Amino acid sequence: MKPTLVVLAAGIGSRYGSLKQMDQVGPAGETIMDYSLYDAERAGFGRCIFIIRRSIEREFRDVILAKLSGRVEADYVFQEIEDVPPGFSVPTDRTKPWGTSHAVQAAAAKVREPFAVINADDYYGVEPFRTMAGFLSGLRNEATDYSLIGYDLAGTLSEYGSVARGVCEVNATGYLEGIVERTRIERTAAGAVYLDEDGRNVPLPAGKTVSMNFWGFTPTYFEYARTAFVRFLEKNAANPKAELYIPLVVNALVRDGAATCRVLPTSARWFGVTYREDKPRVMEAFGKLVEDGVYPPNLWA
Question: Which pTM value belongs to this model?
Answer without folding.
Answer: 0.91
